């Protein structure tokens, strides 16, 4: 097995093996771009190491072979005393994990070679600066020394000299610092900083392997649902130097604006610096456009390379580059992360440029991104006190209490507070605080700072580099030049789309994308928002491609009308229990308390016209489209007062000797209906079978409403759905009763109703006997919420609070099975039931209602299983449409 690949041997499709960074370094090398030579140790080698705790036997020899070839090519040996070859050892997993893994630069420098490097570069300061960086990075990431110790020593050196930046330290200062750093390493680790170059390299490679299982890496993977067993590759890359004086520097760039998607020159450049300085936000960078003035030749070459990359990758790329004494080097590229808005704009731009087709464009956006674009924004017309302005790093409107450290962010958010995490700059240690916060605000760093990159990845609102705001994390406050002081706990609002920061809570308005879905914005209008135009185009690609229909869950005319505007083709789930609440509760109580048939019929008789009126409105709003009405599902006690409240009321009345006969009767009924496990109790079809007349009343209301609409010239398409069926016998009994009622209504009204009768499949037994059930059902709707509960045997209402966190932490689930369908378990029942049902009744209509219907990953699954439609809440309808299109593209 081959464990090491030269950059000339790989290509961009080998990400599994070479990691993203390695694969793309190889791709750039083979495109003829200026990449410093090097080689990649594969993820396979990492996996072996993580499994066995030692590197594979053949690895050492293979690395030696590639190192020898590299030395040959560069004309110098690693760490050679008079002219050292230096390398970086860089992690690079299949998926980019910003700041999560560790990279060590300047490997090969030692007491013996530092003078040689100085002589070769003709720059003593540079050599000592490189050496102190090596000891610092190596000490921290490989030897596990607390990085603060080095930082403090560096600060102290600057302070002693009375300077503020590290460039002001001279060779002698840095030489002193190197001694100090070596002392720190010796003291903290009990061993000297390794002077042998190859040993440095091997230790660094191993540290990269180990960092795969670092806490931060694990947390990030869980967040991003990246599998834990992929391992990381390691890239060994010959060093180029951006810290060789003013004609050197380093930068990062995007081929288009990752925040908006607009074309132009976007990036940050830092003169006389080594790579990590930019991302860390140590010194303030200049906009990339400045480079044109500083070094026109390199700038022009860079622009050309960026164009080459974009055309080659057919997508937005981000890059890292370094200029060494006027010579440009490419250090990294990848298809860049972007905001949701940018994703939609870029996808349509690339179609217009002829680089990709519509099907490919659909793969460039996600339902999650669309959902983000539907979030509200700050109301521009609202009075708001502007505190300052930073860089719009990741869009959204976030309001919360100011907190100045991650610990507090997590603590407060756990107790239900919304918080804005305010830092001078963030680093990987802030990750859990960033996850907990509504938004992130920093006073330093550009669009490529840690805060910006990570926030964009998480879809979290972020404003960074708000330099006029003085953040004091020790005092837990932020000061504005005008004199306003924001203390911990004060409310602030941050706008990640404009970069503005406000004091207090700013009201929000709907997003233009929602306005478009609502039909209040015309995407064809000349002055329409370009985001709206892009979304409109992507939605039409999706609608033109998808096979799955999308319906909505709605139980009133208003929601139905909205769902229709949002593109729903019918209602997949109309819950009738909501129609039993409010003032009607009393009627339901009477129904439950009825002692005689007459009393019960009277209560039902009073409910009937109310239900019917609801249905009439609903059928009108969804005229011409199917409306699936589910008969009453929840346990009856849900309509009765809480047992404790009621007991107290009865006791009080007794004590006061007040009349309480009714309360007493209710209490008795509550006791009688009380169940240990109501979710598995008297509910669904069981109610219909046990309470005479209940389902008949509901069916009559549906049928009469349909008849009324038909007579009025409408086109009602009602479907009656029986919940919680476990066996075909239950369904047959209800069906017989329902057919009788429908026939009566048809006769009485002289209409032909053609109501479809079907069932939910939400119990394992129903799924397992779907072939039989299909004999009595014209359609199935998979109730995947209940099906998930019953297949796993856990209660959705309880588990999230009790053990799910532990399960997620232990990696038993990547994501809650209530959020994304469990394909292997619940999903395979859905698949089998769909097949069995269709075997019995080839024209059986199949759908899904419940949360999964609006979940992107689940929608893809339902597409592949061959369902006819998904049904979800009205606001998720566009997301489901888009994902259904993506699944079919
Ligand atoms: P990350 O994945 O965190 O970006 P990288 O491996 O890309 O880590 O390296 C960190 C920084 O060091 C980057 O700015 C990169 O450009 C720089 N760097 C890495 N290798 C070299 C090299 N051989 N020469 C000069 N700079 C380098
Ligand atoms: Mg990098
Ligand atoms: Mg259910």
Automatic annotation (TrEMBL):
Catalytic activity from the UniProt record: pyruvate + phosphate + ATP = phosphoenolpyruvate + AMP + diphosphate + H(+)
Binding-site residues, substrate: 575, 630, 762, 783-786
Residue positions binding Mg(2+): 762, 786
Domain PEP-utilising enzyme mobile span(s) in chain numbering: 417-499
Membrane-crossing segments per the record: none
Protein family: Belongs to the PEP-utilizing enzyme family.
Residue intervals of the PEP-utilising enzyme C-terminal domain: 535-884
Database matches in SUPFAM superfamilies: Glutathione synthetase ATP-binding domain-like, Phosphoenolpyruvate/pyruvate domain, Phosphohistidine domain
Keywords linked to the UniProt accession: ATP-binding, Kinase, Magnesium, Metal-binding, Nucleotide-binding, Pyruvate, Transferase
Name of the protein described by the UniProt record: Pyruvate, phosphate dikinase
UniProt EC number: 2.7.9.1
Catalytic residue list: 450 (tele-phosphohistidine intermediate), 849 (proton donor)
Gene3D superfamilies for this protein: 1.20.80.30, ATP-grasp fold, A domain, ATP-grasp fold, B domain, Phosphoenolpyruvate-binding domains, Phosphohistidine domain, Pyruvate Phosphate Dikinase, domain 2
Organism of this sequence: Streptomyces mashuensis
GO MF annotations in UniProt: ATP binding; kinase activity; metal ion binding; pyruvate, phosphate dikinase activity
UniProt entry tagged with the keyword Metal-binding: yes
Cofactor(s) the protein needs: Mg(2+)
Signal peptide feature range: none
PANTHER family: PHOSPHOENOLPYRUVATE DIKINASE-RELATED, PYRUVATE, PHOSPHATE DIKINASE 1, CHLOROPLASTIC
Positions of the Pyruvate phosphate dikinase AMP/ATP-binding domain: 16-53, 58-284, 290-341
């Amino acid at each position: 097995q081959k464990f090491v690949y030269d950059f000339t041997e790989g290509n961009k499709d080998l990400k599994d093996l070479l990691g993203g960074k390695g694969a793309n370094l190889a791709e750039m090398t083979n495109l003829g771009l200026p990449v410093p030579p090097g080689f990649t140790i594969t993820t396979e080698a990492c996996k072996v190491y993580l499994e066995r705790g030692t590197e594979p036997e053949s690895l050492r020899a293979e690395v030696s072979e590639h190192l020898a070839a590299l030395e040959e090519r560069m004309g110098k040996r690693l760490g050679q005393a008079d002219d050292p070859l230096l390398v970086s050892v860089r992690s690079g997993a299949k998926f980019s994990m910003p700041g999560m893994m560790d990279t060590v630069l300047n490997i090969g420098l030692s007491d013996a070679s530092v003078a040689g490097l100085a002589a070769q570069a003709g720059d003593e300061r540079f050599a000592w600066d490189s050496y102190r960086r090596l000891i610092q990075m190596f000490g921290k990431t490989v030897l596990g020394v607390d990085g603060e110790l080095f930082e403090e020593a560096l600060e102290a050196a600057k302070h002693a000299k009375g300077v503020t930046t590290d460039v002001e330290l001279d060779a002698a200062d840095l030489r002193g610092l190197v001694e100090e750093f070596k002392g720190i390493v010796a003291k903290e680790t009990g061993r000297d900083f390794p002077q042998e170059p190859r040993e440095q390299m091997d230790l660094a490679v191993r540290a990269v392997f180990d960092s795969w299982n670092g806490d931060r890496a694990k947390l990030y993977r869980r967040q991003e649902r990246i599998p834990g067993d992929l391992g990381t590759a390691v890239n060994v890359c010959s060093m180029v130097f951006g810290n060789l004086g003013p004609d050197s520097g380093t930068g990062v760039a995007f081929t288009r604006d990752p925040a908006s998607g607009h074309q132009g020159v976007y990036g940050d450049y830092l003169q006389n610096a080594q790579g990590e300085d930019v991302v860390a936000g140590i010194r303030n960078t200049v906009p990339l456009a400045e480079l044109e003035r500083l070094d026109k030749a390199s700038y022009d070459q860079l622009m050309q390379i960026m164009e080459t990359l974009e055309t080659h990758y057919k997508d937005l790329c981000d890059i890292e580059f370094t200029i060494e004494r006027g010579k440009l080097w490419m250090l990294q590229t990848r298809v860049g992360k972007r905001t949701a808005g940018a994703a939609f704009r870029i996808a349509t731009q690339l179609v217009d440029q002829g680089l990709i087709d519509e099907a490919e464009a659909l793969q460039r956006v996600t339902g999650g991104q669309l959902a983000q674009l539907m979030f509200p924004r700050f109301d521009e017309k609202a009075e708001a006190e502007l505190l300052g302005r930073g860089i719009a790093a990741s869009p959204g409107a976030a309001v919360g209490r100011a907190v100045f450290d991650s610990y507090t962010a997590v603590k407060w958010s756990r107790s239900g507070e919304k918080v804005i995490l305010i830092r001078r700059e963030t680093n990987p240690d802030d990750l859990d605080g960033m996850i907990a916060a509504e938004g992130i605000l920093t006073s330093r760093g550009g669009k490529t700072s840690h805060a910006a990159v990570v926030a964009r990845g998480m879809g979290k609102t972020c404003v960074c580099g708000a330099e006029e705001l003085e953040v004091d994390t020790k005092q837990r406050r932020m000061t504005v030049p005008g004199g306003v002081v924001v203390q911990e706990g004060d409310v602030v609002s941050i706008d990640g789309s404009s970069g503005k920061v406000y004091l207090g809570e700013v009201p929000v308005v709907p997003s233009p994308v929602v306005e478009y879905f609502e039909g209040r914005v015309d995407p064809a209008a000349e002055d329409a928002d370009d985001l709206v135009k892009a979304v409109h185009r992507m939605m039409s690609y999706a609608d033109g491609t998808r096979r799955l229909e999308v319906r909505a869950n709605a139980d009133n005319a208003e929601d139905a009308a909205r769902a229709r505007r949002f593109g729903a083709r019918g209602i997949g789930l109309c819950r009738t229990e909501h129609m039993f609440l409010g003032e009607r509760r009393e009627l339901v109580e009477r129904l439950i308390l009825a002692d005689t048939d007459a009393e019960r019929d009277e209560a039902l008789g009073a409910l009937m016209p109310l239900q019917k009126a609801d249905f009439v409105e609903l059928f009108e709003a969804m005229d011409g489209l199917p409306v699936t009405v589910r008969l009453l599902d929840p346990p009856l006690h849900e309509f009765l007062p809480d047992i404790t409240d009621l007991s107290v009321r009865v006791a009080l009345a007794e004590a006061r000797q007040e009349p309480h006969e009714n309360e007493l009767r209710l209490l008795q009924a509550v006791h009688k209906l009380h169940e240990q496990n109501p979710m598995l109790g008297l509910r669904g079809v069981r109610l219909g079978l046990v309470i005479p007349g209940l389902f008949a009343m509901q069916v009559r209301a549906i049928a009469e409403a349909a008849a009324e609409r038909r007579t009025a010239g409408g086109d009602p398409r009602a479907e009656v759905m029986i919940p919680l069926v476990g066996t075909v016998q239950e369904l047959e009994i209800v069906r017989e009763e329902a057919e009788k009622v429908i026939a009566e209504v048809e006769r009485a009204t002289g209409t032909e109703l053609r109501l479809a009768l079907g069932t939910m499949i939400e119990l394992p037994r129903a799924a397992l006997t779907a072939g039989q059930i299909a004999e009595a059902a014209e359609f199935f709707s998979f109730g995947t919420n209940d099906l998930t509960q019953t297949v796993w045997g856990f209660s959705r209402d309880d588990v999230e609070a009790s053990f799910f966190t532990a399960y997620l932490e232990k990696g038993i689930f990547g994501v809650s099975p209530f959020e994304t369908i469990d394909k292997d378990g619940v999903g395979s029942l859905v698949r089998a039931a769909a097949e069995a049902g269709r075997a019995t009744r080839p024209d059986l209509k199949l759908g899904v209602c419940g949360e999964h219907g609006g979940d992107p990953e689940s929608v893809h699954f339902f597409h592949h299983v061959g369902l006819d439609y998904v049904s979800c809440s009205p606001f998720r309808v566009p997301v489901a449409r888009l994902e259904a299109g993506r699944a079919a593209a």
